[in-house]
Design a protein that fits this description.
Shape: globular
Radius of gyration: 14 Å
Low-confidence stretches: none
Structural class: alpha+beta
Distance between the termini: 19 Å
Helix content: 10-25%
Mean pLDDT: 91
Number of domains: 1
Order of helices and strands: HEHEEEEHEE
Largest sheet: 5 strands, antiparallel
Number of helices: 3
């Protein structure tokens, strides 16, 4: 099913381009304790102020973020945000702030999976 804007134009969806690695990516994120977070949820301020985040808008029009890296050796993949399900948009961002006051420093649509 395709969603549409109020003018009935279809909203494109982007599918996971690396489905063969999904199970390993999800298992790794679970082992590392990574879970997607919405703006304003507990932990959001910590994640954004630690460095680059990966973001995705789900097909339910929800925006989630995860850290890009847990540490130097562990990059977290976009697929963790939606468990491999399609997205409406995805990318990376640099955000700073706290307590509902945020500044978007950079944003891109860079994703190796979507």
């Amino acid at each position: 099913m395709t969603q549409s804007f109020s003018n009935n134009a279809p909203i494109p969806r982007f599918s996971n381009q690396s489905p063969g690695t999904l199970n390993d990516e999800l298992r790794s994120a679970e082992d590392l304790g990574i879970r997607p977070i919405k703006v304003g949820e507990a932990g959001f301020d910590d994640i954004i102020n630690e460095g680059t985040v990966k973001w995705a808008v789900t097909t339910k029009l929800e925006l989630f973020v995860i850290p890009k890296f847990l540490d130097v050796n562990n990059e977290i993949y976009h697929t963790v945000i939606t468990l491999g399900e399609p997205v409406l948009a995805a990318g990376e961002a640099e955000i700073v702030g706290s307590n509902g006051l945020y500044i978007l420093l950079t944003i891109s649509n860079h994703s190796g999976h979507f």
